[in-house]
Amino acid sequence: MIENIDLSMVNWARAQFALTALYHWIFVPLTLGITWIIAFYHTIYVKTGSEEWKNLTRFWMKLFAINFAIGVATGIILEFEFGTNWSNYSWMVGDIFGAPLAIEGIFAFFLEATFFAVMFFGWNRVSKKFHLFSTWMVAVGSNLSGVWILVANAWMQHPVGQAFNPNTARFEMQNFSEVVFNPVAVSKFTHTTSASMLFAALFILSISSFYLLKGRHVKMAKQSILVAAVFGLLASGFVAFSGDEAAYEDAQNQPMKLAAFEGLYKGETNAGIVAFGMINPAKKVDDDKDAFIFSIKVPGILSILANRSPGSFVPGIEDLVYGNAERGIMGAQQKIEKGKIALTQLDAYKKAKKADNQVAATAALTLFNAHKDYLGYGFLEKPEDAVPPVAMSFNAFHIMVVLGSLFPLVFLAYLYFSYKGTLEKQRLLLGGGTILFFLGLIAHWAGWILAEVGRQPWAIQDLLPVTIARSNLTAGTVQTSFFMFLALFTVLLIAEISIMLKQISIGPEEN
Amino acid sequence: MIAYWLETATLAQLQGLWWFLCSVLGSLLIFLFFVQGGQTLLWQVAKTDVEKSLVINSLGKKWELTFTTLVTFGGALFAAFPKFYATSFGGAYWVWMLILFTFIIQAVSYEYRTKPRNIFGAKVYETFLLINGSVGVLLIGAAVGTFFTGSNFTLSSYNLVTWTSSLRGLEAAFSLFNLSVGLFLVFNARALGAMYLLNNIDFTGAEELEERLREATFKNFTLSLPFLGWFLLQIIPMDGYAVSATGEVFRQSFKYLLNLVQVPALAVSLVVGLALVITGVMLTAKTKAKCGIWSSGLGTVLVGMTIFGMAGFNNTAFYPSKVDLQSSLTIHNASSSLYTLQTMTWVALAIPVVLLYVAYVWRSLDMKKVSVAEVTGPEAEELY
Asked: ipTM for the complex?
């Protein structure tokens, strides 16, 4: 299919996607979460008519708007990057992948963009109720956009409702509802949106803590904290629940990802989870080095997490690469052999069709169909290529889990001291609270890295490796646009931070 | 009834429907480029800070809508014609990259321009808006021009695109024809921008701005005429890229003229569209009317639909390859499968609802025009 794979180009294209997504992912979770909190603040204002709540709403809206602009700017690049850097991907799965993107535009972006203008400009232009309705619609629209992009992403992780069409040499949609209600999409959406609400709550806590430490806007800060901490605490529960579901889905659909993020090289029954440890980054699947420099495991937990069954067997990286006959696991080597047959027969089928040789075409198609489930593996050179970067996946997962466990405790502490009326005196908590936003961002990035790095080398799990998904560009071309994006996004980020800090230092209006 | 039609519709019918829907979105986008046109006018019609604020805040209520339409247009093309998405974006790399860059810098400029400590100062963000309104629209126009002049690519048997020009799409901007499409769009957007601003601003205390906008409407429309004329003069005798019944692409003399003749709806759409554009401009330039944007806007949409229709309907290759005719894309060989198009058609039933609420919000928000009192009042710092 592709004769000369320029790995350097593929890696630059990956880097560019990672760069864009990491920048985008600073702003998007904040947008997804804070719109709900602003809608709550706005509702309280409309219900009570209190100018304090109005000022508070306007203040958080202003920070949201600054953040929103750059989120939009980075978002457009992600959509079109599928075409520019991953054009073969766009063709091979566009029949399925394009639909959620179009639906996102029609249903979500228009809702968000239309009502954003009312939310922003509507204070003295439209009725209070319509203005409030618009604020809620921005929250709905933002999160609806999350639904569709996560449906698309989930399909890449667990490609259901599709079939390969040898005549067009692409994957085509067979069942839309399977794509939409993909269990991976459900867990991804609930996990991402609840984590975004949590992140927005951390953002509000950070800024409000800063005000309390400075003794400025004290009443507004306390009001903001109260709503945000309740919101954050509830969101934390959903994050834990949906995170567990996401891990279960990984175990069922992407066992290699699960094995990588737990650093599990050899499969185990009653498998334990690493509570504390440092993975050995030099370890390869085909050597005898120790997987960990040190580690403390809690036995049995990984089996429950992965299979909902205590004592069950969880396959390790070696089982998945080299196979495990005893457990009925086919290794990547065997899959590669089958995949190569599928590719050869696909080529033979196309040639026979072109030559109008029906007998040869039917024979090739029969063989192809028998091996087509392993088509993607045919593009891999060796079984070890099926292993994602283990150390990066492991570290990302554990950083995310540690931070995710810390946040509910922080929300509880804020609520406790708010209830006691002594929050202003908790200098240590408030001082630490000012960096909560950054910790939340790290947790989000770690989650994203886990999801995307953990599924390598696949663009579409088991069906299409990134090396084949690429565009026919030189490494130099992609490298140039990479540095253009890096420079532009960095400059815009600096401007955003500068504006944001100034707005925070100005603070909300006081009556 | 819709369900029955969808069940029985052929793939070719749905491909036609989706080219029509993409044409509607693309044409609405060309209309909504009044935002981009208005951005370029900022430097000429707004002489004071107050006038600048009037212009920016008026456009600021709509920029997101244009941006969203662009993204949705891209999404619809991806869903309905993925081979075009893959071929054009993966092949004409630099032209799309530059277009995207101009939209990145637009997205932040409204919000950041007047904010304290914005690092670069208002002028830089205004320059960003100028670049987006001029270079961005020009390049999109040049890209549309390639629907008729063709591009430099070949497709492998697995549909992997190879671009044969090292300029990777930028070469489109060196064709006089493509350039004339681009420049027509730029000046048309400027005329539309001036008409939109006239409709959207309360000029009490800014009467001179109103006069300048009326002048700008006529001047920019006049400037667009040579490029429109060149486009029409070139396209009528042009050898087009036709598709035979077996799917083979071949050059056909007067192909685009034939499309206008054989599909009368296209010719009617072109004539009515141009008449509406002229009516809007004349109403604005010669009377005190402020509603010219609606006539010219609708006219622009109709002209846009004619352009897309001429490119894709009546057995025409809408994305032709200059170097390998058989690599050319048609609405039939570039589309998604029957199932996907059926599914997407169900989704498209929501489009009228979207248009309705967009219209309702537009009207609600614009009942109160942007005024000098607003942009100089106590809440001015909350604005753009």
From this structure: 0.91
